[in-house]
Automatic annotation (TrEMBL):
Main location: membrane
Organism lineage: Bacteria, Pseudomonadati, Pseudomonadota, Alphaproteobacteria, Hyphomicrobiales
Example of a GO cellular component annotation carried by this entry: plasma membrane
Species assigned in the record: Hoeflea marina
Location relative to the cell: Cell membrane
UniProt keywords, alphabetically: Cell membrane, Membrane, Transmembrane, Transmembrane helix, Transport
Xref: NCBIfam families: PRK15133.1
Occurrences of domain ABC transmembrane type-1 (ranges): 132-347
Transmembrane parts of this sequence: 9-30, 136-155, 167-193, 223-246, 283-308, 328-354
Membrane topology: Multi-pass membrane protein
Record's signal peptide: none
Protein name: Microcin C transport system permease protein
Length: 366
């Protein structure tokens, strides 16, 4: 197993480099880079990104004929001093060839040096740490809730397959899966957050303004009071998917020959279920854990964060792409990709813990 883990760790290097290289290449052809963003901001041709260049104001009044090829490369830069454009390029690192920029970026990332945001005057790692509590709160609790509820419910549905309980719960689950989370979130706001009916839950932030003055119990209640509606809106699809996956996995295992043999030996249904079926049926659930974790933790909350005014990684990533804040875009991509690969390896190790018969090292050799 040690050799297998080492191979997986070594394979992460070319995988990460490949992901970053493809993304970097795509970005080179994307219009409206950070230079254009600042030019549009300074000339009033676009939305403000918050970026400012010291001394830029007195460079705007370029004399006739001072605009050269360097300024004509950027939309909206006609009439600006070429020295000012060159200064922007140097600030954002575009005065170097693409391959050199990519190599320097990967060398810095290998040392976990992610630089600073183009437009926010803060290091990328501090910016991510600032937004992380919201994403942790949403992702971790959604995952726990969906697994704690869905796995027992899926097992119960598999045992009572075809019963009235199974039919009614299946109908509810299918409806829950079909309703988009953001649409259900809007409905919750209308009903319970002061939209048109009740005003029971807050609509902004992760905690109240007086959070620091609350007791420990008050802080816990306040925290979950703010999270109640976002978690409910986000957990629908994850809850439905995990429940149906669990049910189908257990039904498939219950129908196999070894279950009939175990029953013929005098084992009770409960003994058969938890001594034999559970271990095999849970393998597919464990296989889906990394994808469920990444989706819930990083990419599934943009619309929910927007609707409930939560400032997390989802909104940070979206705003960074819109504003062409490349250090934030590439740093988050690198961190999330690395975490996804590590979680995939952890998933394989859990496989071997659940079922010791699985040996990835022998499988690779064969």
């Amino acid at each position: 197993m040690g050799a297998y883990i080492l191979r997986r760790l070594l394979l992460m290097i070319p995988t990460i480099v490949g992901i970053m290289a493809i993304s970097f290449a795509v970005i080179q052809f994307a219009p409206g880079g950070p230079v254009e963003q600042v030019i549009a901001d300074l000339t009033g041709q676009g939305d403000s990104t918050g970026g400012r260049i010291s001394g830029g104001g007195d460079m705007l009044a370029a004399g006739p004929g001072s605009s050269a090829d360097i300024s004509s490369q950027y939309r909206g830069a006609q009439g600006l001093d070429p020295a000012f454009i060159a200064k922007l390029e140097k600030q954002f690192g575009f005065d170097k060839p693409p391959l050199q920029r990519f190599g320097e970026m990967m060398w810095n990332y290998a040392r976990f040096d992610f630089g600073e945001s183009f437009f926010r005057n803060i290091s990328v790692i501090d910016l991510i740490a600032e937004k992380l509590p919201v994403s942790i709160s949403l992702g971790v609790w959604i995952l726990l809730i969906s697994y704690i509820i869905s796995i027992p419910l899926g097992i119960k549905k598999a045992i009572s397959d075809g019963s009235r309980f199974d039919v009614w719960t299946s109908g509810i689950i299918i409806v829950a899966y079909a309703v988009p989370g953001f649409l259900f979130g809007i409905l919750l706001i209308v009903l319970f957050a002061g939209g048109s009916f009740l005003d029971w839950f807050p609509l902004r932030g992760l905690t109240s303004d007086n959070f620091a003055q609350l007791s420990l119990g008050g802080k816990i209640l306040d925290y979950f009071w703010h999270l109640a509606l976002p978690l409910l809106a986000l957990s629908l699809s994850a809850f439905a998917t995990t429940t149906l996956l669990t049910k189908n996995s257990f039904i498939d295992e219950i129908g196999k020959q070894y279950v009939t043999t175990a029953r013929a030996k005098g084992l009770t249904d409960r003994q058969v279920l938890y001594r034999h079926v559970f271990r095999n049926a849970m393998l597919i659930i464990i296989a889906g854990f990394p994808g469920a974790f990444i989706t819930a933790f990083f990419s599934g909350s943009l619309l929910i964060e927007t609707i409930f005014s939560l400032d997390g990684l989802g909104r940070l990533g979206f705003q960074s792409v819109v504003n062409r804040d490349y250090p934030v875009v590439f740093a988050t991509l690198f961190i999330f990709s690395l975490m996804g690969l590590v979680i995939g390896l952890v998933s394989d190790l859990v496989y071997t813990w659940v079922d010791p018969r699985i040996d990835f090292e022998k499988r690779d050799v064969g």
